[in-house]
Fold:
Amino acid sequence: MTAAVKGLTKFTMLLTVLAVVLLITISVCYAVSVALGHVPIVFPYISETGNWEPESCVFSFGMNIASFLYMVAVYLRYHELLVYRESTPNTSITPRLNRIAWALGTASAIGLCVVANFQVQKVRIVHYLGAFTCFVGGSVYFGIQAWFSKCMCPWVSSLNMVRLRTTLTVLSAIALTVCLACALAAISQFDGKDQVKWSPENKGYTLHIVSTVAEWLVALIFVGSIITYIPEMTRISVHPPKFRILLLESVKSVSSKPTEKF
Structure:
Protein backbone atom coordinates (compact mmCIF):
# COMPACT_ATOMS: atom_id res chain seq x y z
CA MET A 1 0.00 0.00 0.00
CA THR A 2 1.20 3.45 -0.75
CA ALA A 3 1.13 5.68 2.27
CA ALA A 4 -0.28 9.16 2.05
CA VAL A 5 2.53 11.43 0.91
CA LYS A 6 2.58 15.17 1.06
CA GLY A 7 2.10 16.74 -2.33
CA LEU A 8 0.07 13.86 -3.73
CA THR A 9 -3.60 13.88 -4.57
CA LYS A 10 -5.73 12.23 -1.86
CA PHE A 11 -9.16 10.70 -2.40
CA THR A 12 -10.35 10.75 1.19
CA MET A 13 -13.77 12.21 0.35
CA LEU A 14 -14.50 10.30 -2.86
CA LEU A 15 -16.57 7.48 -1.38
CA THR A 16 -18.18 9.80 1.16
CA VAL A 17 -19.40 12.10 -1.62
CA LEU A 18 -20.57 9.06 -3.64
CA ALA A 19 -22.65 7.71 -0.75
CA VAL A 20 -24.10 11.14 0.07
CA VAL A 21 -25.03 11.83 -3.57
CA LEU A 22 -26.80 8.49 -3.85
CA LEU A 23 -28.77 8.97 -0.63
CA ILE A 24 -29.73 12.57 -1.41
CA THR A 25 -30.80 11.74 -4.97
CA ILE A 26 -32.96 8.81 -3.91
CA SER A 27 -34.51 10.71 -1.00
CA VAL A 28 -35.28 13.91 -2.94
CA CYS A 29 -36.77 12.04 -5.91
CA TYR A 30 -38.93 9.92 -3.62
CA ALA A 31 -40.19 12.96 -1.69
CA VAL A 32 -40.96 15.00 -4.82
CA SER A 33 -42.61 12.16 -6.75
CA VAL A 34 -44.83 11.27 -3.77
CA ALA A 35 -45.72 14.92 -3.11
CA LEU A 36 -46.77 15.39 -6.75
CA GLY A 37 -48.77 12.16 -6.79
CA HIS A 38 -46.58 10.50 -9.42
CA VAL A 39 -45.98 7.37 -7.31
CA PRO A 40 -47.69 5.83 -4.27
CA ILE A 41 -46.20 6.57 -0.88
CA VAL A 42 -45.78 2.88 -0.02
CA PHE A 43 -42.46 1.70 -1.47
CA PRO A 44 -42.43 2.45 -5.19
CA TYR A 45 -39.48 1.14 -7.17
CA ILE A 46 -36.55 3.55 -6.98
CA SER A 47 -36.55 3.98 -10.76
CA GLU A 48 -40.22 4.97 -10.74
CA THR A 49 -39.40 8.01 -8.60
CA GLY A 50 -37.40 9.37 -11.54
CA ASN A 51 -39.99 8.88 -14.28
CA TRP A 52 -41.60 12.31 -14.56
CA GLU A 53 -40.52 15.94 -14.45
CA PRO A 54 -39.24 17.61 -12.39
CA GLU A 55 -37.88 14.72 -10.32
CA SER A 56 -36.54 12.95 -13.42
CA CYS A 57 -34.09 15.84 -13.88
CA VAL A 58 -32.81 15.45 -10.32
CA PHE A 59 -32.64 11.68 -10.73
CA SER A 60 -30.57 11.85 -13.93
CA PHE A 61 -28.28 14.58 -12.61
CA GLY A 62 -27.57 12.87 -9.29
CA MET A 63 -27.17 9.36 -10.69
CA ASN A 64 -24.83 10.55 -13.45
CA ILE A 65 -22.57 12.11 -10.83
CA ALA A 66 -22.77 8.93 -8.75
CA SER A 67 -21.99 6.78 -11.79
CA PHE A 68 -18.84 8.78 -12.53
CA LEU A 69 -17.64 8.68 -8.91
CA TYR A 70 -18.45 4.96 -8.73
CA MET A 71 -16.33 4.30 -11.84
CA VAL A 72 -13.41 6.32 -10.44
CA ALA A 73 -13.62 4.41 -7.14
CA VAL A 74 -13.60 1.06 -8.97
CA TYR A 75 -10.53 2.17 -10.95
CA LEU A 76 -8.69 3.27 -7.80
CA ARG A 77 -9.54 0.02 -6.03
CA TYR A 78 -8.17 -1.91 -9.02
CA HIS A 79 -4.85 -0.06 -8.77
CA GLU A 80 -4.78 -0.38 -5.00
CA LEU A 81 -4.87 -4.15 -5.44
CA LEU A 82 -2.14 -4.01 -8.09
CA VAL A 83 0.13 -2.14 -5.66
CA TYR A 84 -0.77 -4.53 -2.84
CA ARG A 85 0.12 -7.52 -5.02
CA GLU A 86 3.49 -5.96 -5.87
CA SER A 87 4.31 -5.55 -2.19
CA THR A 88 2.84 -8.94 -1.23
CA PRO A 89 3.78 -11.44 -3.98
CA ASN A 90 2.40 -14.45 -2.08
CA THR A 91 -1.13 -13.06 -1.92
CA SER A 92 -4.05 -15.08 -3.33
CA ILE A 93 -5.26 -12.02 -5.26
CA THR A 94 -4.58 -12.80 -8.93
CA PRO A 95 -4.28 -10.16 -11.68
CA ARG A 96 -6.94 -11.96 -13.70
CA LEU A 97 -9.53 -11.88 -10.92
CA ASN A 98 -8.64 -8.26 -10.22
CA ARG A 99 -9.31 -7.42 -13.88
CA ILE A 100 -12.60 -9.30 -13.77
CA ALA A 101 -13.64 -7.35 -10.67
CA TRP A 102 -12.67 -4.08 -12.37
CA ALA A 103 -14.75 -5.01 -15.44
CA LEU A 104 -17.76 -5.91 -13.30
CA GLY A 105 -17.51 -2.73 -11.25
CA THR A 106 -17.17 -0.60 -14.37
CA ALA A 107 -20.14 -2.36 -15.98
CA SER A 108 -22.17 -1.75 -12.81
CA ALA A 109 -21.31 1.97 -12.94
CA ILE A 110 -22.30 2.16 -16.62
CA GLY A 111 -25.54 0.36 -15.76
CA LEU A 112 -26.27 3.04 -13.17
CA CYS A 113 -25.71 5.69 -15.85
CA VAL A 114 -28.17 3.87 -18.16
CA VAL A 115 -30.75 3.74 -15.36
CA ALA A 116 -30.29 7.48 -14.83
CA ASN A 117 -30.83 8.47 -18.45
CA PHE A 118 -33.35 5.93 -19.78
CA GLN A 119 -36.54 6.20 -17.71
CA VAL A 120 -38.45 2.97 -17.17
CA GLN A 121 -41.70 4.56 -18.35
CA LYS A 122 -40.17 5.65 -21.68
CA VAL A 123 -37.48 3.10 -22.60
CA ARG A 124 -38.40 0.09 -20.50
CA ILE A 125 -36.14 -2.61 -21.97
CA VAL A 126 -32.99 -0.46 -21.98
CA HIS A 127 -33.73 0.69 -18.44
CA TYR A 128 -34.19 -2.88 -17.22
CA LEU A 129 -30.92 -3.95 -18.85
CA GLY A 130 -29.14 -1.08 -17.12
CA ALA A 131 -30.71 -1.90 -13.75
CA PHE A 132 -29.84 -5.60 -14.11
CA THR A 133 -26.23 -4.75 -15.00
CA CYS A 134 -25.96 -2.28 -12.13
CA PHE A 135 -27.41 -4.50 -9.41
CA VAL A 136 -26.16 -7.93 -10.48
CA GLY A 137 -22.74 -6.67 -11.59
CA GLY A 138 -22.46 -4.62 -8.41
CA SER A 139 -23.41 -7.54 -6.18
CA VAL A 140 -20.78 -9.81 -7.76
CA TYR A 141 -18.22 -7.00 -7.66
CA PHE A 142 -18.70 -6.37 -3.94
CA GLY A 143 -18.62 -10.12 -3.34
CA ILE A 144 -15.21 -10.38 -5.00
CA GLN A 145 -14.01 -7.33 -3.07
CA ALA A 146 -15.11 -8.97 0.18
CA TRP A 147 -12.92 -11.95 -0.69
CA PHE A 148 -10.04 -9.61 -1.57
CA SER A 149 -10.50 -8.01 1.85
CA LYS A 150 -10.09 -11.44 3.42
CA CYS A 151 -6.85 -11.90 1.49
CA MET A 152 -5.64 -8.50 2.73
CA CYS A 153 -6.50 -9.19 6.38
CA PRO A 154 -5.01 -8.08 8.77
CA TRP A 155 -2.53 -5.84 6.86
CA VAL A 156 -5.13 -3.64 5.16
CA SER A 157 -8.59 -4.84 6.25
CA SER A 158 -9.50 -5.86 9.79
CA LEU A 159 -11.25 -9.14 10.54
CA ASN A 160 -14.39 -7.31 11.65
CA MET A 161 -14.45 -5.38 8.37
CA VAL A 162 -14.12 -8.64 6.42
CA ARG A 163 -17.06 -10.08 8.33
CA LEU A 164 -19.14 -6.95 7.74
CA ARG A 165 -18.45 -6.90 4.00
CA THR A 166 -19.19 -10.62 3.72
CA THR A 167 -22.48 -10.16 5.58
CA LEU A 168 -23.47 -7.26 3.34
CA THR A 169 -22.64 -9.32 0.26
CA VAL A 170 -24.81 -12.23 1.40
CA LEU A 171 -27.69 -9.91 2.31
CA SER A 172 -27.40 -8.16 -1.05
CA ALA A 173 -27.56 -11.47 -2.93
CA ILE A 174 -30.61 -12.60 -0.95
CA ALA A 175 -32.43 -9.27 -1.35
CA LEU A 176 -31.66 -9.11 -5.08
CA THR A 177 -32.96 -12.66 -5.62
CA VAL A 178 -36.14 -11.87 -3.69
CA CYS A 179 -36.58 -8.62 -5.63
CA LEU A 180 -36.32 -10.26 -9.06
CA ALA A 181 -38.37 -13.35 -8.20
CA CYS A 182 -41.21 -11.43 -6.58
CA ALA A 183 -41.23 -8.81 -9.36
CA LEU A 184 -41.71 -11.46 -12.04
CA ALA A 185 -44.40 -13.22 -10.00
CA ALA A 186 -46.24 -9.96 -9.24
CA ILE A 187 -46.23 -8.78 -12.87
CA SER A 188 -47.67 -12.09 -14.04
CA GLN A 189 -50.62 -11.62 -11.66
CA PHE A 190 -51.18 -7.87 -12.16
CA ASP A 191 -54.70 -7.03 -13.33
CA GLY A 192 -54.63 -3.22 -13.20
CA LYS A 193 -53.90 -0.55 -15.83
CA ASP A 194 -50.78 1.18 -14.49
CA GLN A 195 -47.93 -0.93 -13.07
CA VAL A 196 -46.52 2.13 -11.34
CA LYS A 197 -49.60 2.80 -9.23
CA TRP A 198 -50.36 -0.53 -7.61
CA SER A 199 -53.19 -0.72 -5.09
CA PRO A 200 -54.06 -3.39 -2.50
CA GLU A 201 -56.98 -4.42 -4.72
CA ASN A 202 -54.63 -5.51 -7.53
CA LYS A 203 -53.59 -9.14 -7.74
CA GLY A 204 -49.96 -9.67 -6.84
CA TYR A 205 -49.85 -6.53 -4.68
CA THR A 206 -48.14 -8.26 -1.74
CA LEU A 207 -45.47 -9.74 -3.99
CA HIS A 208 -44.98 -6.31 -5.56
CA ILE A 209 -44.40 -4.69 -2.16
CA VAL A 210 -41.95 -7.43 -1.17
CA SER A 211 -40.08 -6.82 -4.43
CA THR A 212 -39.88 -3.05 -3.98
CA VAL A 213 -38.79 -3.35 -0.34
CA ALA A 214 -36.07 -5.78 -1.44
CA GLU A 215 -34.91 -3.31 -4.11
CA TRP A 216 -34.60 -0.51 -1.54
CA LEU A 217 -32.65 -2.89 0.69
CA VAL A 218 -30.26 -3.73 -2.17
CA ALA A 219 -29.68 -0.02 -2.80
CA LEU A 220 -29.05 0.70 0.89
CA ILE A 221 -26.73 -2.31 1.17
CA PHE A 222 -24.77 -0.99 -1.81
CA VAL A 223 -24.38 2.36 -0.08
CA GLY A 224 -23.36 0.58 3.12
CA SER A 225 -20.78 -1.48 1.22
CA ILE A 226 -19.33 1.68 -0.31
CA ILE A 227 -19.04 3.30 3.12
CA THR A 228 -16.99 0.37 4.46
CA TYR A 229 -14.16 1.25 2.08
CA ILE A 230 -13.85 4.87 3.23
CA PRO A 231 -11.15 4.11 5.89
CA GLU A 232 -8.97 2.43 3.24
CA MET A 233 -9.36 5.35 0.83
CA THR A 234 -7.80 7.66 3.42
CA ARG A 235 -4.54 5.70 2.99
CA ILE A 236 -4.43 5.93 -0.80
CA SER A 237 -2.55 8.67 -2.62
CA VAL A 238 -2.19 9.13 -6.35
CA HIS A 239 0.41 11.18 -8.21
CA PRO A 240 -1.22 13.94 -10.26
CA PRO A 241 -0.60 13.57 -14.01
CA LYS A 242 2.33 15.42 -15.55
CA PHE A 243 1.65 17.40 -18.72
CA ARG A 244 4.22 18.27 -21.34
CA ILE A 245 3.49 20.96 -23.91
CA LEU A 246 5.26 20.65 -27.23
CA LEU A 247 5.62 24.20 -28.51
CA LEU A 248 4.98 24.98 -32.15
CA GLU A 249 8.56 26.19 -32.73
CA SER A 250 10.00 22.94 -31.41
CA VAL A 251 7.67 20.98 -33.69
CA LYS A 252 8.90 22.96 -36.69
CA SER A 253 12.54 22.52 -35.75
CA VAL A 254 12.10 18.76 -35.36
CA SER A 255 10.22 18.41 -38.64
CA SER A 256 12.80 20.52 -40.52
CA LYS A 257 15.72 18.27 -39.56
CA PRO A 258 16.93 16.12 -42.47
CA THR A 259 16.13 12.45 -42.15
CA GLU A 260 18.69 9.75 -42.76
CA LYS A 261 18.31 7.65 -45.85
CA PHE A 262 19.28 4.02 -45.79
Observations:
- The chain is about 65% helix and 0% strand.
- Confidence is low (pLDDT under 50) at residues 1-7.
- The beta strands are 9-10, 237-238.
- The first helix runs from residue 14 to 35.
